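Entry — protein

Goal — fold tokens:
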Amino acid sequence: MMQKEAIYHRPKNHFAYARDEQTIHIRLQTKKNDVKNVNVHCRDPFAWNGVGWDNVVISMYKTGSNGLHDFWEAEVTPPNRRLEYFFELTDEKETLYFTERGFFNKRKNVTTSQFKFPFLNPADIFRAPDWVKDTIWYQIFPERFANGEYSNDPEGTLAWGSKEPEQDSFFGGDLQGVINHLDYLVELGISGIYFTPIFKATSNHKYDTIDYYELDPQFGTKETLKKLVKECHKRGIRVMLDAVFNHSGFYFAPFQDVLEKGGSSRYKDWFHIHEFPVKTEPIPNYDTFAFTYMMPKLNTENAELKEYLLGVARYWIEECNIDGWRLDVANEVDHAFWREFRKVVKEVKPDAYILGEIWNDSMPWLQGDQFDAVMNYPFTDYALDYMAKETIDLQRFRQGIEELLHIYPKNVHEATFNLLGSHDTARVLNQAGEDKEKLKLLFLFQLTFSGSPCIYYGDEIGMTGENDPDCRRCMIWEEEKQDKELLSFVKELIQLRKSSKALSQGTMTFQEHPDLLVYEKRWGDETFVIAINNQNKTSLFSIDQKGYQVILLHGKEANDKGLQLADKGFAILKKKKGIKK
């Protein structure tokens, strides 16, 4: 008997969504290894007397599994963009019909209880900017990338890299320093820069904004930013800035007005003040980011504040031609604000990228009316746990990634921001126990995974550092101190990714293997096979080499048996044209 309680489907989310203006993707969840075949029966709800699409049966195919469930998918193209449907599930003993109202043993009972996708409206299709799918990002913490203009250094600036950073250290990094090193980024293969905040603030990280309409003087002027964006665009590099709209800094003028005037301040409703007078200790009597009294939470439901912040979103695109916004602590801001934010941003620049910082399941923000993508921290966690920390095994990793691939529509995955390290975490190399071979496997997986990958500055040259503030060390520019072999490897992976739609955007399918991570990436008639040996011993990857071209290999050929992958070894193979499976 099939396990009915494990069978799940719900329309108008990642289980039924518009892939494009003609196509609907239908997904179904069943218990793992419980169902043999699934068909979806489709019709136009208005079909009658021989007119309209009626009783079209489409076979569903299994697209993956996690520890508990199998996932099935079918692609449906209803001629009139209207659709109602039900599922037919079979195992070795029975056939079930699954509808909106539950299960039936006889097909004749499903007529009035089918699932419905009422109409495929183009306005409801999730659309992220096309350019993002092929972009390779580079995250820059401006205070620590390069000092290009010493005249704007803050008081007490330390010599570049002269000591390990502390919470209040300043080393003089600025936008001119980034301009001076753009050719390095071009040579690396970068096509997008994500900057942590650059607006006026007292800290070195700038997440405590004082003035949203002014650059911090230590980074330069608006003219410097305009020059930076212009020079980036000349080199095919997009620029994304960080917006902190969940909270402001303590010295934000409106909050200072509230501190001074209390309940009579015109700005009192810009914040979530519990009572007056305002107190910062021992616990703030106003909402904050975490419990940090220096970062009062903004009330984005306030009409005046909303107008101010939406003006900020528009201003920097119009003023400096930036290409996107990364939104800090985005999950704590109300959905209504983000819907208005999207309208404003897309009106001024339709292909601007809107990226939210959300650490968990983000489907509520990815319906096409708010964000283009979120930072894919589940991807980060699975990759680090398996390849860097080795706290999960191959089976758990594979199941986790397959589950991740099914929690969003494919449209969403194409633009998701896939990172390994950032300014918020210990350096990837540190998390890998300073094992460079592990770091290589992480880069290999990241740069052959669909979505939009991001490299945290310096990871490509083997920089180290523990948690904040140590992960924010000064970029190493002395070539003799850089890991040139690692840098060359990352460059090679980036160029390979850029040369192939299969690697950058292709469908991912895992292959069963007892001790190797093996997956295919397919796009049209192009297919790659990637094998990763995340073990401390060699392992045989059995494959008929006659049908494949070896692109990259850390291991050796094993006669006609396949490839002998070294410990922490890997292989990237490209299927030869005209070769059948």
